[in-house]
Design brief:
170 residues; five-stranded antiparallel beta sheet
């Protein structure tokens, strides 16, 4: 980026076959890019990969599955107080529940903790953001199991896990 213009380097492939539902966040503690996506060519598993930017190029580590089930509605964010990535998603293989998982980036790889349910019902339009003032992740979504209401929930990362407060309709 220079002023109000942008230029690009050469595209680099991070997955050699079909993907969907891509979400990208930046890990500022490791200066890495993290991409979460649905790997449609691999049973639509939820998958993450770490990217390293150098000049105008990017290289990628090995993709890692975070949900070995049909995964959609993916949204990733970076928790700067714990230096972890948080991925929120719908687990289509488990009644379309809204779930989240914590990822730890080390070098060019990522490892994941255990998934946690934040909404035990059909969950769509998921968006995860990090509140730097409260040091918490906020997930907003449409709760199809509750009259399609817009709903929010606050998550707290501890180690490699995340816990949630009560869901609040907005």
């Amino acid at each position: 980026i220079s002023g109000t213009s942008i230029s690009f380097g050469t595209p680099v492939e991070f997955q050699s076959n079909n993907i969907a539902e891509t979400s990208v966040t930046f890990d500022s503690s490791n200066n890495k890019v993290f991409i979460a996506y649905t790997h449609t060519a691999n049973s639509s598993y939820g998958t993450g990969v770490v990217g390293t930017v150098s000049g105008t190029s990017i290289s990628f580590g090995t993709p890692v599955s975070f949900n070995n089930g049909y995964t959609t509605k993916i949204s990733a964010t970076f928790d700067s107080s714990s230096n972890k990535v948080v991925v929120a998603y719908r687990d289509d293989s488990q009644s379309d529940y809204g779930k989240a998982i914590v990822g730890t980036i080390s070098g060019t790889s990522v490892s994941f903790g255990s998934e946690v349910t934040f909404n035990a019902g059909n969950t769509v339009l998921i968006n995860a953001v990090y509140d730097v003032n409260a040091n918490r992740t906020v997930i907003v979504y449409r709760d199809m199991a509750n009259s399609s209401y817009g709903t929010a929930v606050v998550g707290t990362v501890s180690g490699t896990s995340i816990s949630f407060g009560s869901e609040v309709v907005f």
